[in-house]
Amino acid sequence: MTATGHGAAQAVAEQLAFALSAAGLRKAYGATVALEQADITLTAGRVHALLGENGAGKSTLVRILTGAVRPDAGTITLGGAPYAPRSLIAARGMGVATAFQELSLVPNLTVAQNLLLPDLPKGPLGLVSFRRVLEQGADILARHGLQRIDPGAQVGLLPLAERQRIEIVRAIENAARVLILDEPTAALAETDWLFDRIRMVTAQGVAVLYISHRLAEVREICSDATVLRNGRSIASVGLSQASDGDIFEMMVGRRVDHSARDRVGPPADGSTPRLAVKGLSGHGLRDVSFALRPGEVLGLAALEGQGQRGLFRMLAGLAVPDAGQVEIDGSPAALGSPRQALRSGSGLAYLPEERKTEGILAGLSAATNVVLPVLSGSAAAGVITPQAELRAAGPSAAKVEMTPRYLGFAIGDLSGGNQQKALIARTLATGAKTLLLFDPTRGVDVGTKQSIYAAIRAFAQDGGSVIFYSSELPEVVQLADRCLALYGGKVFAEFEGDAIAEQALVTAIHGHGGGHA
């Protein structure tokens, strides 16, 4: 081969190594510019992180790469050739598949049907063969270590974590060239299964775009990262050359201090517990008892499926316990519905696990969503106006540092972080003295987390009580005055103050150690 021919071959090889490259992407929705000069390059066989605050443009970039929206400007190449898909199906046909944070599964179809859509196998008469659908679905699940999931189960009845895994598996099965994972561990308490899948596809030469707010896991699985801020690419860096402080500063435009613990600490006065749970059983729990004091932030640490979801739903009036009793302010409470929970004693207000399906009403304004539980209090002469809703929602929204202008937007059009702020503002607007927060910072950025932490601290300092579960142990360590570790549906261990340490929690939630510290 001549020198010229060798150089040309090397150039082609280098170009093909860049599985996907985007330059100068711009997308505006009316006067709102979601992306402006966004650039990113993914390399075959490597995992590349996309980092940024909620509203930085990550979701818009993903929608462009998956064909859901068309950019106003900019170019994209896939394997060196122009790439401009007009739909998710078209992108998948070119080997680019996405597992979305807000799951795209069809809830009333089976697991197997969701995995195989839109090309369901047919029988001799050209009709869909249910038997072949189940067989092929079972084969796919087995390939990914998910034999425990029934391919004939209705997706909508499965736990969120299992639905997340199905979403990921479906994307992997269709990702011949590029796999996009949008907050893939938001509903997963452990990363081992997911990271094994990622290593499998990168070994096959697939490029992976990994979007997460959890920097520890980003460092574990990714080699490079692109940071977006206000719709622009701030930098693309090798993660080994950038500190956490550097990355946070690129994301938010300032240094973020994570060194100080945010514990409030309840008064040690022996007062009547705000909430007392005695022998509660059912929905994954077995004879659980604990007390929550005024001014206390109580954290729950647990692996997936240890009863934490059942506990919150029973306390919120969404599920009926098999046994046990709940007392609020020293009196037995009847928690037959969320309304009863809110009106019992000093009140329990619940932040649900899934904001899209259990929390927001997407077509209504953020202000309406905030004041829903107290809507009658916004009425003047029996009439509720948008202006009255804005006035009523303002104080609670300010407590979570939600930008006032967003209150007038349809909540479905806001970023996930602003939706979560609105839902937390709603719990505060109820006037309840006890907040039940299930994974309150799931899928939100570092800046939004700080706003939520500040709201929790302020609520407790004013005498409120908080019980929260988090899938991120560092968050429990940072916020909780006291922590219960659940294992096997029981309180396996209890930690308080400086004894709340990540290593101790990891040990306890895996069923080792135990007792009080």
Q: Examine the secondary-structure arrangement and name the CATH architecture of the largest domain.
A: 3-Layer(aba) Sandwich
Uncertain spans? 1-16
The total of beta strands comes to 21
C-alpha-based Rg, rounded: 24 Å
Would you tell me the structural class of the helices and strands? alpha/beta
At the fold tier of CATH, the topology name of the largest domain is Rossmann fold
Sheet with the most strands: spatial strand order: 16-17-18-13-19-20-21
CATH superfamily of the largest domain: P-loop containing nucleotide triphosphate hydrolases
Shape: globular
The portion of residues forming beta strands comes to 15-25%
| Distance between the first and last residues' Cα | 71 Å
CATH class of the largest domain: Alpha Beta
Mean pLDDT: 88
The structural domain count equals: 3
- Estimate percent helicity: 25-40%
Discrete helix count: 18
Multimeric status of the protein: single chain
Biggest sheet features: 7 strands, mixed
